[in-house]
Structure formats: C-alpha cells, structure tokens
Amino acid sequence: MLLWIRVKKLIILLVLPFSALAQQSMNVNLLYNWTDTTLVSSIAFGNAYNEIWGVAINGREYAIIGTTMGTHFFDVTDPVNSVQVDFVPGALQGTSIIGRDYHDYRGYLYMVSSDGNSTLQIADLSYLPDSVSIVHESNSLIQNAHNIFIDTATAKLYAVDVAWYENFTTYQSDLRVLSLADPINPTLVFDYDYPPMFHDLYVRNDTVIVNHVDSGLSIFDFSDTTNPQLIGSLTAYPDQGINHAGWLNEDGTIYAFVDETHGMDVKVCDGSDLTNITVVSQINSGVDINSIAHNLIIKGDYLYIAYFHDGLYIYDISNPANPILKGYYDTYASPGHDSFRGAYGIYPLLPSGNVLVSDMQYGLFVLDVEDATIINDHTAVIDNVLIHPNPFLSKLTIEMHGNSGDKGSSIFFLYDLLGRELHRVEQIENIETDVQLGHLPSGLYIYAITSEKRILSRGKIVKE
C-alpha cells in the first residue's frame, strides 16, 4: 500500500509542469553544485558549461568540466567540501564556444574544443591536488574536434569531425587517429574520410563504433589503422533521429545509444556480435514528449544518461530486454522542452561511485547514487513486463512473465501529463491482461505497474 502511494507521488512529480520540477529526484542525492555567474554564455543555447570528465589520481578524485572560458578542475574526494584546484584557459574563449571534450590516458588529460581556432591541449595531472601542468598545446594535429576517444589498449587517440592547421591553411577530415606511444608528443597515424559524417564514437581494442548523425551506426576494425575494415552497421531502427553517441558495456554484450532528437527513445542493443547489432529495448525519461537524451555511459549493470531538461537518469540493464528505472535527478531548474539546454554530460566511473553531471546552465553536480544502484530484495524486478501496442487505438495488453509472485498483487496506473490518475486495474492475475482505454482522447500518457514491494515498470505511452 505504501509503495504504490509513493510511486504515484513520484510519477506526479515526473509529469508536473517543469517549473514545479526543479531539483526533484528519486534515489539520488545532491552532494555538491558549482556555478560561476561571471562566465559568459555561448551564442547557441545560452550555455556557459559543456562536457564533464573525471579522474582518480594519487588516491583522490577529480571532476573536470568545460566552460566557455576553458577547463576547470575540482577535487571532489570529499564531495560535500569540493573545491576548484585549477583552471586551464582555452585557446579560444567566449561566446563562440559551445562544446569541449576530454579523455585521459596514463595520467594525462587530453582536451579539445569543437569550435573555432582552438588546439589540442595535454595536461599532466601528476601534480594534483596542487595544480595541473600543460605539457602540449598545438593546432598542427587538431585545431578543433567534436569528440575524442582513447583506446587505452592500443595507445591511440581517435578524434572525429576534425580541423587542423598546416601551412597557414585549415584542413578538415572525418577522423584523425593519433599515436600516444609518447603521451605528450602525439603523432599522426591516419586521416580518414568516410561519408556520412562521423559525429561521435566508442573505441575498444581497435573496434570502433561510429555515430553518423543521420545515417545510424557503423562498426570498423582498425587493427590495420591504414586500412580499416567496415564489419557491421545499423542504418535503420525504431525511433531513428540524429544518431549522437553510444557506449559499450565492460563485457561487450550490451551497447546503448541515443538519438539527439526531440522525443526519441534511448536504444539498448545486443552488442555480443557487433557485425549484427540489434535493438532489444527502448527507454525514455517519460517526462515530456520532447525530451532529448544527450550523452550516456554504462557502468556494470547500470546505464547512466544525461537528458537535456530532465537531468540524470539511471537504468538497471542487467536484463537488456527489460531496463528498469532506478533513479533520477533533475539538474535543470527552468521550464520548457523546446531547446537544447540542461544536462550535457555524465561521468559515473569514479571509484567512489559518485556521479558527475554537467548542466549547460547550472554547472557541475556531484551526486550520490548509492540508493539507486544498491542491490537488495526490495529492488528486485520480474523478468519481463511488456505493454503493447504503443501507440494504441483503444486497448492495451499487459504481459507479465517470470516471477509469478508478482501476479495478483500488481496494480496498473495510468496518468495524464498533469499527474492525474485516469485509470487503474487492480489484481493483475493473468499472464496477459487487456485494458480498455477507448474512452480516452489521443495523446501522451504515463503508466506505472507496481507490486507491494517494488516498481515493476513505468514509462510513456501514446494513444492515437
């Protein structure tokens, strides 16, 4: 009884007008937030902040966040008392800066910007917590790049959507591969132009998964860097939009990616055979029909997503066919879903388990997610709950498989976007239960299925 009342309150918080949602959360607690009102905002979306990264050096943890002015380093070892320990000015600063990107390797941080006459910067992190030291800054290999990724197994840096400066002329390519055999003196290995445009990528052991904006995914074998081979692709899939970014889990069995398009679901894929990658489930924040997922990282059984406007969302994907929402935190305190504002980046890989989020308008967040990721009997879920069809015309079917102990104690709720309960079905006893909803007008709705001890499923559903 108490659980479904609490769930209803959570769902109501989720679907209330966004001005009422500021700083709402589920199983996630704020430890620290940093903003600097003196920073200028970009001309694009009014964002002063962009990408986030994290490192553990000399037994301490650090958050690294990009802004329009450069790169800020915070000691977050004692997160409640986090402190900025250094700042590296960007080669280009000001309102034209929309994004920066970071990756670390062997105690060095690699820094690029996607905008203007910038550089590749490399910082030596070994002097932390006192300071960082710039050991390389040049535009001869990278002037600007949209994203970088380092394959630590092969000591190679991959940069996409790259410009570089040579002989007083700026050149462009889809991809540049740099050797980090000498970490502070990168050398060019290969230039690669392969239409369509490379936007982002994930790399592991010479396998490169590329996000192509409007043409889906491509998977390459870069074992021979001078002669990469296309080994797989995913060019058509449900809820297809601007293919933006993805991440592969540690054992290579699950790949998840986002489309940076209003209202498109996050796709969770079977990644065990990258020559034949397939979508096995779709998830979304359920906040608004225009919600946009921007960046994501998988750690263990959990998928961490940074949503524009909606903040951090955490899903248990131990069963990739049935992701379960475990927690969220709203970093964005302003109304609306019609723009590209809010949570930009996510970093959940610190040893402490604390999660770093960058919000384009509200800065650095250090979040405690222990309540969302702790495993116990009270958070266990059944093997599968399926709601179909979606969209529906007049009837929904609820399929419950797996733990039969949840059947008979489960309740189905349907809410409108103001959080008002519209329909309820108690005592779902059969494997399949039909719910007649023909009386409802067309539109977007929020559903939840609960048992006495746990949330079984929740999400958005559309009536045609």
**Main sheet, how many strands, which sense, barrel?**
5 strands, antiparallel
The strand line-up of the biggest sheet is 1-26-25-24-23
Number of helices: 2
Provide the β-strand percentage band. over 45%
Low-confidence stretches: 1-23, 376-383
Estimate the mean pLDDT confidence. Answer: 87
CATH C-level class of the largest domain: Mainly Beta
Structural class: mainly beta
Based on Cα principal axes, name the global outline: globular
Name of the CATH homologous superfamily of the largest domain: YVTN repeat-like/Quinoprotein amine dehydrogenase
CATH architecture of the largest domain: 7 Propeller
Instruction: Kindly report the CATH topology of the largest domain.
Output: Methylamine Dehydrogenase, Chain H
Number of domains: 2
| Rg calc | 23 Å
Task: Outline the fold blueprint.
Layout: H1 2-15, E1 25-26, E2 29-34, E3 49-57, E4 60-67, E5 70-75, E6 83-89, E7 100-105, E8 108-113, E9 120-124, E10 133-138, E11 144-151, E12 156-166, E13 169-179, E14 187-192, E15 200-204, E16 207-211, E17 217-221, E18 229-234, E19 243-248, E20 254-259, E21 266-270, E22 278-283, E23 292-299, E24 302-308, E25 311-316, E26 324-329, E27 343-347, E28 355-359, E29 363-368, H2 370-373, E30 384-388, E31 395-401, E32 411-415, E33 421-425, E34 432-436, E35 443-450, E36 455-463
Antiparallel strand pairs: 1-26, 2-29, 3-4, 4-5, 5-6, 7-8, 8-9, 9-10, 11-12, 12-13, 13-14, 15-16, 16-17, 17-18, 19-20, 20-21, 21-22, 23-24, 24-25, 25-26, 27-28, 28-29, 30-31, 31-34, 32-33, 32-35, 35-36
